Known about the structure:
single chain; alpha+beta; YaeB-like fold; 5-stranded mixed sheet; 3 helices
Amino acid sequence: MIAPLAHELLYTEQAAAARDRLDAPRRAAFDRGPGAPAQDPFPSVSRAGDPARATRRIRLSKDALVEYTVSLRRLVIIDVTLFDDAGILVPDA
Length: 93
């Protein structure tokens, strides 16, 4: 049995629109991610998103970075940044 989320998971309209633009394989990988910070919003791999530390940033998958805020048992995903390897100016190899 899956444990209930410690925080209700919500998206801003902008973040939901970015999430909804993902193709099926990338969406499946993305959808596995948000439950983790909703259980523990301050994992060691997250970082402060602003100087006031009101938001956090975490890389959910190789393709997606999210910025979120936590309050009153709610985790609100504010922004989703998507990465596409086709858009790299200087490739690794």
